[in-house]
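quick one: iron/sulfur cluster bound model?
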Amino acid sequence: MITYSKILDLAKRALKTPGTYHAQWFLTSRCNYRCKGCSVWRERNYEELSTEEVKRGLDILRNIGVLEIVFSGGNPLLRDDIGEILKYASRYFITTVYDNGSMAINKIDELRYADFVAISLDTLDEKKNDYMKGVDGAWRRAMEAIRILNDEGVNVGVSPTISQINLYEIIDLTKYFTSLGIPVWYCLYTYDYQPGRGIFSIGKENYEYEITDYKTLATICDTLIEMKVRNPYIFITRKTLEAVKYLALTGKRIWRCKAFRNFLVVDHLGRVSGCHCREPITTIFNLPRIWRSSYMRMLRKELNKCTNCIYLCYIFYSVHDGLTGILEITLDQWKSIKHVYKRLRTQI
Ligand code: SF4
Ligand code: SF4
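yep, here:
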């Protein structure tokens, strides 16, 4: 839960170590869905870190300056200890957990520990959504989960992945949920450039999903920028949208990748990498030993030149760099922060 003391602690840590402020932890590779643009569920690796190991890893992330953590998978809610992990993490980090909409209703008490719960839902079209998720009833379950979590006072948001298949529906989906006071934040379809080589293979090549209408993608960015002025439920910054728009129109990037500088990822086995597309370089437990080494400095420089993916979260944490980046996000999202805080106060 976001409290004054947590905000103060986050601010102090940001000033002390203006380095990696975002971590994504793929807590499990188990998943009960079969999404067409995903390859995680194919891996079927059931090994995972224990609860105590995850907690130890979280302490390490806190010490190296991580402020925000996202738990995903697989479906992290398939872990029996997810409540304990969220409770532990949310003491120190802005904590978000993902669900495909299938598990959240049965884990409401556990989810109250998270600052945000993201339900992935790609379209308002029931049939299309179920086709994309590879499971009948996925849309109905996700819609029900969003409604119930919202009624229960959990900070639930909707997280669509923008792809060619739902490109023309993104604005309507945004309008629909934000008019109900439910935030929306986005992913952008892409796939791993070397599947099997990275820490995890998330994206899967899918021609149906690959964006071909870049002009519309740019128009969506413009529309969201315009909507954001009055709508506090759109959780993406203007600067990120401008970067995506520029990429869509010119094929060029206005950012350099900040993997291992502003963000890192941890997988279900505790292996660490700058992003999930890259090979793991160490384990979370060994990370403090090498974090400030010349090897890491060299690696950061190398990743800085990489242009191999357009995963939106990595763009976001690259365009907003360091302490200035944190300030930019805070200013851009000020209305949203005020909204979240007001809501939390009514729950206390
Ligand atoms: S996208 Fe998420 S919900 Fe869908 S199969 Fe992959 S891990 Fe599971
Ligand atoms: S651009 Fe950055 S986030 Fe994307 S694959 Fe390269 S190192 Fe990873």
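The first helix runs from residue 4 to 16.
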